[in-house]
Amino acid sequence: MTTARASLLLHAAVAALSGLLWCTPPMALAQQPSPRLLEQFTHTAWGALDNAPVDILNVAQTSDGWLWLAAGTGLYRFDGKRYERVDNVEGHPLLSSSVRTLYAPPEGGLWVGYRVGGGISHFQRGQARHFAAGQGLPGGAITSIARGPDGVLWVAARDGLARLDGDHFVT
């Protein structure tokens, strides 16, 4: 393509775009969102007097909407208005009140990892499964629970990693 022809095509394209801009209604060009004033928002702060934990270590939201908080003082759940310290989930007791980490899978349920003594619990559909160190889990506090891109559940502990294989963990 010659330089003159390329220049002519470029000018024609710019002219066509300019024509489109002139034909477009002004409202479509500069539609600004209405300003949101700070007064339109509300803020609520919760503290220890409201039963809110002050030493939050991890947070997870289950598919039923509950916000779960792992704290040095135990496991809490929050419904958007109030905090409640819980010693059991769906009627099943926690292995320890020393909760370190949480994982809420998209299909529902809650995994709880413990600091003191290690171990994890899985609560789902009214059932509970508990796994302790020595049952495939490495020793020490559970520091993280996560699912990999391949769907495998992984657990990190002070002494290593383990993955869920069927109904048991392997290191």
TrEMBL record:
A Pfam cross-reference name: Reg_prop
Name assigned to this protein: Two-component system sensor protein
Record has Signal as a keyword: yes
N-terminal signal peptide: 1-30
Entry annotated with the keyword Signal: yes
Species for this entry: Duganella alba
Transmembrane segment boundaries: none
UniProt keyword list: Signal
